[in-house]
Predict the 3D structure of the following.
Amino acid sequence: MAKKKQDSILQAPYVIKETWENLMEDKKFIKVFLSDILEEYVLKQRWYGGKASKLKYIELREYFKIQQKGEVYYGLLLEINFEEAFYQHYFLPIAFVTDESFAEKDRILPLSLNEQEGFIIDALNLEAFRKLVFERIVTAEPNDVTRVRYHKSLEFTDTVYESSRFMGLEQSNTSIIINDRSVIKFFRRIYADKNPDFEMSQFLSERKGYKNTPAYQGSISIMDSEEVNVTIALMQELVPNEGDAWDFMLKELNKIFNTLEQKHINVRELPQTTLFDRLSIRDVPPEIIDWAGLNIFLKLQTLAKRTAEMHIALGSEFEDTAFTPTHFNGDYEVWLKNRLLYQFQNRLNTVENNLHRLEDLSLDLATEFLERKNDIRKRFVNFDWTKLKGERIRVHGDYHLGQVLVQGDDFFLLDFEGEPESTIRDRKVKQPPLKDIAGLFRSFHYAVYATIFTNMDSYKHSQEELFIAGELLYRYFIGVFMESYVTLIQEHNLNIGYRQERIFLLEYCMLEKAVYELGYEMNSRPLWAVIPLQGIMSIINENN
């Protein structure tokens, strides 16, 4: 029945006598719009994160006007309810246009509104809306207390709108480049709180003057009906760059693996190093430098420095309680264990149910993973906060090579939203800084294996030899990074614990990250499950 009603609406424009300015007061329109139109539209959007669940119904949690000088758009806060008894909130700005040039894919609903025919579209497709948003930010009054709050950084001096365009294909958010100097990121999935990306961006660039993240320029938030400040957009500097560090690392690693053949290197004779041993470049054996080249190690030193500077900035606040450093305690231990044991059980079930999809090394490692489940669980349970002396701070939370931009010989760190699976409160829990480092090291590990898998046919060495070489290289990468990172952190008196504590936290956080990754790989590309499984088993076997 609903399908027939929907077809009739789409074939002949839905007729309504109301004006655009009063449209959202029409309860009959809202009902049809939410149930018959938006459900189908939302399911097709890249930013929609509920594709793995079954949508039950959509509610309009609330709406607000985004306007200037008689020009009116609506911001909708949608509550999407699922059959599995949970919900997610999304932000959708809408506009009414009469221009036939809008492509079918951009139209949400054909509508005859007060005898004027046109379409409701996602307002981000309309340049006039993007211009209005930019102008509202740059003319924002300090201490705005209206319902829709626009904020501009005192450091931002651009005032005239020139042009705008979409940044490119993104998954969870939509970013618009303004004047080729700024980026406005519209958060699609929203939370009843300030977005961590907004908080961290403003704190690092405005409060701490940290230069290696895109400078905070402005934001938009909405005070919802429960007086909660909800971030809907963040404006930052557009950093000229040569792409992200993930692509950079893949290219470098491909050259390094090709060099094995060019220099006739016997991987089994390469000098070994212990995982997490700190190494200056002088400590790296000449055979390794001759194979991998000096450049990659110099770049790792720079990345380590920028990462340490970020953590030093985040650990140097003593007024704003959201950012003041704290120590480990019993509450943190209970929170951590509950979270990780639940996640671990989920991954165990996933591996058990998908074992038939694995083969060769992946199958061997998955079988070992299941056999050693009690050892892994014991690692998670053996977190004793009373033995840890380091500090906890606000951290990046989802730190990997894809969150780092390359600019010449330097790096810029971005996207502080946190781990997608985590709740908004979990993302703001203060963590050991080494949690970020563990995420980056897992990213190094991924890059090594992704390079091998992608280019296997062009390498002359066997897969086993490439894995041996890759694991060795990975250890040298970690060693050089750790030396630069720890040296700078200690110079600025941020307490990350002594060597034994650091290794414990790194292993713990890397195990957590690898278990987290395992769920994604088992569900989406089982052949790649070998990467997190290898990471898990190497940590479990390291001290045995």
Observations:
- Confidence is low (pLDDT under 50) at residues 1-12.
- The chain has three domains: 2-123, 129-237, 276-542.
- The two ends are 63 Å apart (CA to CA).
